[in-house]
Amino acid sequence: MRILLEEYQYEVAAIKDVLHGIDPLTNIEGKVSIHYVGYYYNSLLKDCVFILPKVLLYGGESPSDGPELVFGKYKPEDIANLDENNPLSQQERDFIYKFAVWIYRAIVVYKNDKQNDSSIIYHAQIAQVDKGQRRLSNTYLDILLSLIQFNRENQNFFFFILKNLHSGFNKINWTRTISTTTAIVQKNRPIYLNPVNKKRKINFDEELLVIFFSILNYIGDTYGFSKGINCQFDLIKGKQFETYLKGYGKTRLLQIKYKYFSDKALELWRLCFAFFDESRQVFINTEQKEYLLVKNFYIVFEAIIDELIGDKPLPDGMNRKQEDGKIVDHLFSAPSLIDGEAKQTYYIGDSKYYKIGHELTSESVYKQYTYARNVIQWNLDIFNVGGTTESGVRLRDDVTEGYNIIPNFFISAKMDMKFDYSNDGIDKTDRKKNKHKQVQFKNRLFDRDTLLLFHYDVNFLFVLSLYARDNISQKAKWKQEVRDKFRREIQEWLQMDYDFYAMRARPGVNGEGYIRHNFKEVVGKVYAPFKDERTYSLALDNSDPEGNNEAIKAALSEFFYVEPCRLGQNPEDVLPVAADVVAVNNTDNDLALCVTKEGIHFDSAVAMMKQTGKLGVALNMNGATLQLVEGFTTAKYLIIHNKSDRYVAFFVDGKGPRLVSANEMTDMVLTKKGASIYLVYSAELDVRPAFGELDFTPISKSGDSYSPHLLPIQSLIKEYIEV
User: Cis bond leading into 313, ω under 30°?
Assistant: First the structure.
């Protein structure tokens, strides 16, 4: 078996004989490269040649990277002959044998999909098992294909054996029946209720068939080949079959070898033995022209990624080939980054088939931005003529004139150096730059000219094998997993660069009117992504490139509730309900019970309060007790806040608090866990108070800021001026 690497620059003299039967391109320096991936038979050497993808090569992007090496260790010239003086370890050799099978299977699956470009496929009859002249060496692929061929062409042989196996079944052994069982006499005739059947002798034909069909089952499960098993045997599977792979299969076949005499049985035995034997000594009838090659393997890689990630057909009737001639590799609609339940957006992807470690070119980056601009315009055109999209995607909001975030991404291949096919390995690329951004205006995330691009790597072995197996349920499962991963991690990436807020107009404020009146100040910063179109998202670049983030927040806070709200978070968790808000006069002197919560405890406490409406104050634990001052039973407001003056307020239900022992407690917000008795307040959930900005300095400056505090609400309202 000979090995060549796609696009590697070989010295012609080093591989001249290996190239017999294929037309490579020679450059002016006398070097040659092959732009195919696949398999062909070299009739000169009487050996098969596998051309493997360039993803096995490391280095060579620049002179400082050193030469291109297979696995980062071997010159491709040194491993060209897999059977003689080859430096590969046994593990690496085994990998090459099986990797070649996966490449073959992927090309076959690609070829069989009528939607793919068949013009890049070159195919002639692959090797057939026969009694003819044996090749110089047989590949693992040869053996698998020969096993499958034998099964396809010898069904009559199997049925003949099965017929013989089942003849004589259930015949009664009368000698043993009479001597070991008691008869019942009826009408002077003995009747035996439990006759003894003849014992079945060990049948080696059956064992050989069991081994054969177990092999077919294994290569079907592993590589996706059609099994074609029409016989009902208890097959060898799982851990037991692993013992056969590790040596027992060869041992057992040697033990039963001399039980077979027919030509077909011996042929079958040799095939099964070749499967378990590394020497692979089996006769293969070789055609002079035998090949399965694909030109421009990057097209196959794009098809692999599109099958596993993209929508087929593209969403909303979009064509892959755009009006400017650009071709979108991958496009799908999925939950928006901001509010996944209410709206969807497009995810635009491009797969990059590079040698390992090679960086994106600026041309590739800008081409992807062009894809995004085209998709935006295409979506706008649909609505401009009064149409709608089947997916529901609408990228532009007419009120804010903002645009939904479109996640653009690259996926490039990497090699798992442990040769692991089971781990997808998909993660942010380890190249120098894993995210890109292009803007026309600073600090306008929701502008159509703000374009984002994120770069991922994926384990080439994983996607190759998943595609080659062609298992619908396995592909669908991973597709959903990877889409969820993209959304989640792109959200995290964005939240490193931007602060996100949910906004809703205060009582008596026309939010839409305010945005239109102050359009220049908020354009590109505000967008309406939520189901409730009165709720807006505010995004501010946390580098504050214009130096006015705080001024913008302050101006908006006069007319809107503005609360931090992470991408994907329900804004109802942080905002009061507009229709159920009651404005509170700043001369109100009613008492508010204030509870401090920080970090994630603040968000979880607010969510629990909105769910249960109950707050329990621990009474017997130091550091978390309420000073039972005058008026504690008449508190009108419950406020959960943090030290950054973020808060959520509720009305007390008016029934007053009650004492509850710990063993009677249900789900509720607690000031501190582990108390034996609590003072439990119940809140109104149908209506909320609105105070405007509150200043919790009186609490934060106290010596015990984490204890609950009872304070007149007027002492916390910033706008309150004593008359």
Answer: yes
Which of 51, 48, 64, 42 has its CA nearest to residue 10?
51
Pairing of strands 637-641, 591-596: parallel
Could you report the per-residue pLDDT of 503-547, keeping only the tens digit for each?
998 765 778 889 989 999 999 999 999 988 889 999 999 999 999
Burial group, residue 224, by CB count within 10 angstroms (0-12, 13-18, 19+) = buried
What angle separates helix 155-166 from helix 140-153, to the nearest 10 degrees?
70
**CA torsion angle 111 115 120 121 (round to 10):** 20
9: left (phi over 0), alpha (psi -120 to 50) or beta: beta
Per-residue pLDDT at 460 exceeds 90:
yes
Residue located via tokens 């049948």: 203
The DSSP secondary structure of 318-341, one letter per residue, reads: --SB-TTS-B-SEEEEEE-SS-TT
R_g of the chain computed on alpha carbons = 37
Compute the Cα dihedral for 651, 654, 660, 664 and give only its sign. Answer: negative
The two structure tokens encoding residue 672: 């501190």
The answer to whether 593 touches 710, Cβ cutoff 8 Å, is yes
Strands (E) across 222-356 are located at: 284-285, 291-295, 330-335, 344-352
Alpha helices, H only, 20-173? 90-112, 140-153, 155-166
Biggest CA–CA distance in the chain, Å, is: 124
- Calculate the alpha carbon distances from 151 to 219, 263, 550, 719 in Å: 13, 15, 74, 87
Neighbours of 198 (CB within 10 A): 13
For the record, the structure tokens of 185 come out as: 């006499």
Dump pLDDT digits (tens) for 333-373. 999 999 866 688 999 999 888 776 677 778 888 888 888 89
